[in-house]
Predict the 3D structure of the following.
Amino acid sequence: GDSVTQMEGPVTLSEEAFLTINCTYTATGYPSLFWYVQYPGEGLQLLLKATKADDKGSNKGFEATYRKETTSFHLEKGSVQVSDSAVYFCALSDRKFYFGTGTSLTVIP
Amino acid sequence: DTAVSQTPKYLVTQMGNDKSIKCEQNLGHDTMYWYKQDSKKFLKIMFSYNNKELIINETVPNRFSPKSPDKAHLNLHINSLELGDSAVYFCASSREGQEYYGYTFGSGTRLTVV
């Protein structure tokens, strides 16, 4: 069946460091891929998405590219800020939605 | 103009009580969901309704009963609350056939059973 695997956290980075959170997926069809972010005490917000192979989703300095050949959708940001501290969820949609287990990111000044 | 709203935001109650959580969406979406998030942030789908009909019912104790009076509302009623029910419950919605646009989530209801 379909599934999403993302790197375990927690991840702690200094401000302005480079961020990568790995995400790989298994799907029988042609899913859409998403990154959601959950700030402390809040619900999940859609951060970015990509609907087909080689698409790049981007938002707020974050990027992820849909790589069909490696079945991956890694999240990257060139320079993180303290305000990026949150839990990040990778997800795929192929009629049903599948979430990864979440990766907690803490950015320290 | 909140898209998906849940009430209450916090709920503290004693074991054995019955409680309800309400969810409303004003996006015109056809499908609504309930998710449970545990203390490790793991998200588990509980139920899904499409146009007031139940379409997903994962392995959830039958103490949990969803009710959808219309396609804009999906409420969750929990009977005989147990300590293990403590979690954050999220409501979400999507447009049928357009799940590739993603889900829109409410801000969650933190349930604490004491």
